[in-house]
Specification:
Blueprint lengths: L1 H8 E8 L2 E8 L2 E8 L8 H16 L6 E4 L1
Parallel strand pairs: 3-4
Antiparallel strand pairs: 1-2, 2-3
């Protein structure tokens, strides 16, 4: 039963990059956008880190203002 409810709640699923995905859910009180990310570690190259945070910033700013937002 839980799987069925979860499938009904999932509005979209966007794999943005290998370290970033964005599912959107239909919640009881409104739409919920969750941005799930795994940031680069300290040993990553500087340009890789910059690219990741630029993409994350872009995804955060693209969430509609009336959606609930979760960043994991």
């Amino acid at each position: 039963m839980l799987k069925s409810a979860a499938r009904k709640a999932l509005l979209s699923f966007t794999p943005v990059a290998p370290r970033l995905m964005r599912p959107k859910l239909d919640g009881k009180h409104g739409k919920i956008t969750i941005i799930t990310c795994y940031g680069p570690t300290n040993v990553a190259k500087e340009d890789e880190t910059d690219d990741f945070y630029t993409l994350l910033s872009s995804e955060l700013s693209s969430v509609p203002p009336h959606d609930y937002l979760g960043l994991l």
